[in-house]
Amino acid sequence: MALTKKKKAARSNTIKLKFDTSWSYDPAPESKSAASIKPKYDHFINGSWVKPAGGKYFASINPANEEKLSEVAEGNEADVNKAVSAARNAYEKTWKKMPAKERAKYIFRIARMVQEKARELAIIETLDGGKPIRESRDFDVPTAANHFFYYAGWADKLEYAFPNRNTAALGVAGQIIPWNFPLLMAAWKIAPALATGNTVVLKPAETTPLTALKLAEIIQESDLPPGVVNIITGAGATGAAMVNHPDINKIAFTGSTDVGKLIQRAVAGTQKRVTLELGGKAANIIFEDAPLDQAVEGVINGIYFNQGHVCCAGSRLYVQESVAKQVIRKLKDRMETLIVGDPLDKNTDIGAINSRQQLDTIQRYIKIGKQEGAEMYESSCRLPGKGFFCRPTLFTNVAQSNRIAQEEIFGPVLSVLTFRTDDEVIEKANNSPYGLSAGVWTDKGSKIFNLTKRMRAGVVWANTFNKFDPSSPFGGYKESGFGREGGLHGLLPYVNLIS
Amino acid sequence: MAIAKPYLTIPDFSLSPRIDQVGVEERASRFTKRSIKKDSKMNGLKLVLNMIDLTTLEGKDTDGKVKQLCYKAMHPHDAVEGIPTVAAVCVYPSMVKVAKKALDGSGIKVASVATAFPSGQAPRDVKLRDTRYAVQEGADEIDMVISRGKFHAGEYQFVFDEIAAIKEACGDARLKVILETGELGTFDKVRRASDIAMHAGADFIKTSTGKIQPAATMPVTLVMLEAIRDFYYATGKMIGMKPAGGISKSKLALHYLVMVKEVLGDAWLNNEWFRFGASSLANDVLMQIVKEQTGLYQAANYFSVD
Fold it and tell me: Is A277 tagged catalytic?
């Protein structure tokens, strides 16, 4: 009978698999040559590039090596005003009057151009945000194109979307998007807005403006009438100026719950329509009858994909106590085979943390977790010398009242809790101010139906995780926000229903 | 961490773990996204070649055919230096003696199919005789087939006992148990058959006879590798794995190596614990090795077809 494989620990009879093998993967970097990034970008307003009114620019860096990629314009109130006026003008004079099927053609054209420039967009997304090139290439860019395709189809069928009702566009939409899926979030915002006949002022996050600006180039090339889509860059102050602008009819925001609350306060008492897609602390639940290896894979994807920078990340794992030891062992083995490295390397699984600030936040929570008495495990991989990187981390021995089980960390950190019965886990999963998503892993169909009915989460995945489709509505309950993006439901926030 | 303990308790095989097909297929396809380049590609290719069981299992096999195949096994491509030999040659029992003599001194193993290969539809005494004959003739390894009919009828004890009896008849020869996954139907059943085989004494579990479609696929191999991992943690005993049939391209073979590396790790990445049951794969690997060295692809006719 073969014993332990660890030669060093000859005395120990603990079995451990050794993944650090003599056959390792050589670097397989994607070439940067397909991507062209200008040294400086202005705002995209009314179909052309406009210098910022205040004359200021700020840098966007590559979080994998802290090198500057470009400088982008800092938008102030005057810039926001220009953009909103352009959008208003385009709405009243052109977009409102254009037949729906002509609107559809523009959206379709943008979709095709996103596909054609897919490689360039994927590389820029990886450079600017730190996510692995494999993810940008295989998920972000194709899904963004799909959103444009999907909503292009709705533009001329709105009269069939809501039974017995017609729709009327709202006017000008102000849209603020986050840094975790920059291009995809831009697509999620712009596509339904245009399809329903609105015009747009969009502000990308300050750490990841480049793919939105590349999208602006695409939009310019697509000959979309000037002013229908305007893209301005800036940080929190620029966003606030947008939110407070009197001539915006609708605000769409994806980002942190804290900022969502600020926005909610700012629009109170105005006629502005709002949708908010905020944070989450999703519960991933593994029952004892789940296919364990596949469940573990789903959990791993749910929290370590995109470095954990996902609002719907499965950051709380509830595992039924009878299989807890096995599941934790399988999680640790799987974590050992995750590669943290240069985001441009095609073999990288976990890329760079988006910013110094976010890395500090994650490290602070890891410290809190240890102080709270939870047991920390991180994989043994080497980290690159510079840039912002974090190993995939696991906390076991976590209780419901630990801060790491309640607060959103937004990083590759998983908290593992145990449970005994279905009722108990439903209560614990719902016991959160958030309600964006959840995952259920079991072989029993009736249990899936039981749980999905009783879980208070906007999206519940059964025996899978992080599955998206433009036709499927996405959004949360409670402090994860309100309003849905995607599908038929995603049209509603951008229209008034009229008889 | 689990502690090694003797596996005297035989589990109830009807309760073997459930496998989710969608999840398995997704995980298997993720392995194909790994990019293997430069040195790691060359090392991988050589490892693949060294793991191949060159196979001839035809009604028309003769001494001449087997001798020539054995020569190929020892000299895959003498035109290039540094090419390793394959792991084994796999033949019918009647050809074992010839193969053994031809491979004498080379270190390459002789594997023999047995137990009324490929159908397995024969009485116990015939299967035992088949096995003993092959072992007497000099086989280092025996590739047996399980009784799929009995398995589907739920007679797991029968399947278990048969494997245990054949293992006994093997003596010093290592036993590979062919599950014929293409006839099993679902991943749940593949897992169950894997568990039965391992508990009954298999040294290797193998996907297919290569005589029907589908043969080996990455998802089915993944299910079996995960079964081996769970068995290892429960008992401390390593079991080898051999996907057979349907692997004819180097790129695919490298994906399999990635899968073994990321599921089981270092200990299994050698031909003592992992084999490829393939015939045309060897020439594709040789072609890729020459390409890595020279930068050019040579035409197929530069590589011998035996």
Answer: yes
